């Protein structure tokens, strides 16, 4: 089936309703007076937009609590339903289409979906994100859990729940958890687990000697991209909540219940891998120019190199900062800024104006929650830590929801999530 929009209506198709795709749709809506007759189709294989910075909360949130929370309640603070989104935003120019993108045809200006649907476009925005990279380490795909999407967070939750159930019944004596990769995601996951088990000890549910959490990193330190002072605070916090740091340690293989490193073997009843990201396989089929790692290189306007009407933003795009020559980091913040640029440039293309260039800031302020009511915020030359850092992070969560939802809905989402997740904090 071919879905077409009749000219002169300008059809903008966005692939992926994550941080980049959703924000692009909203930014286009803001420019409706300038765009005049247009329609936006937002395509995603999932039915919800996920706020990844809070994913770790889903894996442990209220797990120890007697009060049971259903899946819907656990998701309520991280997932925005996409089918109802255009209505929630009162947008008549936005359609959400659920479907898996299997390819594009730049010559015919069509997107192909797995169910056979073909959708024609005038402008195409690729915002499909990234996949987990296992760096070819044997056994990771088979034996490790991940922390990339909502389903991953629930898998971790399930494993923890199984262990706790068996421990309480006396069928399990001890659990050893290994988190592989100490970037922001791995570090905050390890910290969340450290704090969660610490809570269980304080509540008399588990004995301290009956669990071990290790954070394994090949580089000399955790959170390698952050300033030294920031890393010192992060290390101190992890030690306080009982996370064992194993830096300068390369994971060579993951087996069932065991991780083989260059320093020896470690027991791992639960292994969570967060070693990095790689391009999605489907992007290779698009026929676009790719860089040596498989990312899509873009111009300063975020137009895909060599294309006139295909743009790429977010994790999938290799945007090189003109000041440093380095790739802009794969961050939600960078992605949402690129989304504003793409919306502006699609508008300018229709107005026959010159495109604007994306100028990334010299520093990205990042907030990392480290278990319980503790957060670290890196402002570059200075940082905030502890409870203050935690509140800054909570405020950032709210402002994100408010940027994509009407105030009332954003507040309810933030409140519902906080109500469930705060039980561990
Ligand atoms: C656990 C975790 C925590 C993070 N914390 C932070 C943080 O605190 N701060 C920060 O700045 N960044 C954070 N990030 C990084 C941030 O999530 C990414 O940089 C951001 O999501 C990139 O946005 P995107 O739009 O490129 O991709 P995504 O947000 O991943 O969106 C891509 C979308 O494309 C869809 N999709 C993929 N393939 C297909 C297909 N074939 N067909 C249809 N749809 C498809 C996906 O379902 C998804 O909805 C975190 C990431 C993770 C995993």
Automatic annotation (TrEMBL):
UniProt-listed SUPFAM superfamilies: FAD/NAD(P)-binding domain
Protein family per UniProt: Belongs to the NADH dehydrogenase family.
Transmembrane regions listed in the UniProt entry: none
Protein name: FAD-dependent pyridine nucleotide-disulfide oxidoreductase
Domain FAD/NAD(P)-binding: 11-339
GO molecular function: NAD(P)H dehydrogenase (quinone) activity
Signal peptide: none
GO BP, one annotated term: aerobic electron transport chain
InterPro entries: FAD/NAD-bd_sf (IPR036188), FAD/NAD-binding_dom (IPR023753), NADH-Q_oxidoreductase (IPR051169)
Keywords: FAD, Flavoprotein, Oxidoreductase
Domain of life assignment: Bacteria
Cofactor list: FAD
Native species: Candidatus Uhrbacteria bacterium GW2011_GWA2_53_10
